[in-house]
Design a protein that fits this description.
This protein has 289 residues and is an alpha/beta fold. The chain has one domain (9-286): 3-Layer(aba) Sandwich (Carbamate kinase). Helices cover 36% and strands 25% of the residues. It has 9 helices and 16 strands. It has helices at 9-15, 32-47, 59-68, 84-108, 156-163, 186-196, 227-233, 242-254, 270-276, and strands spanning 19-24, 51-56, 75-76, 79-80, 113-117, 124-128, 131-135, 138-142, 148-153, 167-171, 173-176, 181-183, 201-206, 224-226, 259-264, 283-286. The strands form 4 sheets. The protein has an 8-stranded mixed beta sheet with strand order 5-10-2-1-13-15-16-14, sandwiched between helices. Strand 3 and strand 4 (79-80) form a beta hairpin. The protein is globular, with a radius of gyration of 18 Å. The structure holds adenosine-5'-diphosphate and N-acetyl-L-glutamyl 5-phosphate. Adenosine-5'-diphosphate is lined by residues 25-28, 57, 59, 78, 206-208, 211-212, 215, 237-242, 245.
């Protein structure tokens, strides 16, 4: 689809030959229609000379698999406590099912996608996450097991894929120097990846319209917010799964990405509406007011 006729042509041109890092979260993978719409937007970007790179989550797919094998898991501030057994299932769901489904859908739409994880080509080096939790005004460290943070990224593999016209589809699993596998929150992984790739734009897809001042009121959408203000709202109006999402935007912006956005991936054409209309559809987090 040629989009310069339907959308703002100068906004389209600004992103041509630039990387747009899309974090495709599990909440925007709930049904096949939604998935097809997301893939369709990604294909439209590519058809119009923009370079999409996808980092996916898949919290729902992990939950489904863990339920099937009767393994319980707990979330602490948006991070799934991951013991060795759970790690195996996380990798199965993310690098197995979710990754290959996205690849299949892009290929079926006539493009060439390649599915990789942080492990491939030694792309991402993980390190065990040191998670500090404040309980009763006291800070304490919690052991999240195989939950990792991104320590280092080597972008050579992704750049090679892009150069050969492949769309990289990346699962947020990586190994550490300690030779252990780590489960990295997909938002955090994506934010780091966006910075390392010098992406022009980072977009996190979820199931709410963006950052809300009241998480239970869909009408309380914040259209624009500065990095500093977003940081100040952490733990206050920004809670649960939204914490790593906003953190990922901050990581991307501090890594040099020009704009970071949180949008509702369950809505049709949400990516195109956000990027190529003045009104936009979600939350834009930027370095300046
Ligand atoms: N201030 C906020 N604004 C919007 N959503 C919020 C906020 N605080 C917490 N949330 C919650 O964060 C969820 C999104 O995070 P998460 O479930 O991890 O998404 P995904 O799986 O799409 O990555 C929303 O569905 C919402 O319930
Ligand atoms: C450490 C950690 O929490 N990892 C996440 C990885 C998947 C993810 O982030 O998926 P969504 O984007 O769908 O939430 C998890 O185990 O659920």
């Amino acid at each position: 689809m040629e989009i310069t006729e339907t959308y703002n042509a100068s906004l389209v041109k600004k992103l041509q030959n630039q990387i747009v890092l899309i974090k495709y979260g599990g909440n925007a993978m709930r049904d096949d229609n939604v998935k097809r719409n997301v893939i369709s937007d990604i294909i439209t970007l590519r058809d119009n000379g923009i370079i999409p790179v996808i980092v996916h989550g898949g919290g729902l797919a992990i939950k489904k698999l863990l339920d099937e094998v009767d393994v319980e898991s707990e979330f602490i501030e948006g991070h799934r406590k991951t013991d060795s057994r759970t790690m195996g299932y996380v990798e199965m769901a993310l690098s197995g099912s979710v990754n290959s489904e996205i690849v299949r859908m892009i290929n079926a739409a006539g493009h060439k996608a390649v599915g990789i994880s942080g492990k491939d080509g030694g792309m991402v080096t993980a390190q065990k996450r040191v998670h500090k939790l404040t309980v009763d005004c006291k800070e304490q460290e919690v052991d999240l097991g195989h939950v990792g943070d991104v320590k280092q990224i080597n972008t050579a593999l992704v750049k090679t894929l892009i150069k050969s016209d492949y769309i990289p589809v990346i699962s947020p699993v990586a190994s550490g120097e300690d030779n252990r596998d780590y489960n990295i929150n997909a938002d955090m992984f994506a934010g780091h990846m966006a910075g390392a790739l010098d992406a022009a734009c980072y977009i996190a897809l979820t199931n709410v319209d963006g950052l809300l001042t009241d998480k239970d009121d869909p009408k309380s959408l914040v259209k624009d917010i500065t990095l500093e203000k977003a940081e100040a709202e952490m733990g206050k109006t920004i809670v649960g799964g939204m914490i790593p999402k906003v953190e990922s935007c901050i990581i991307a912006l501090k890594g040099g990405v020009e704009s970071a956005r949180i949008i509702n991936g369950t809505k049709k054409r949400s990516i195109l509406e956000e990027l190529f209309t003045e009104g936009r559809s979600g939350t834009l987090i930027s370095k300046e007011t």
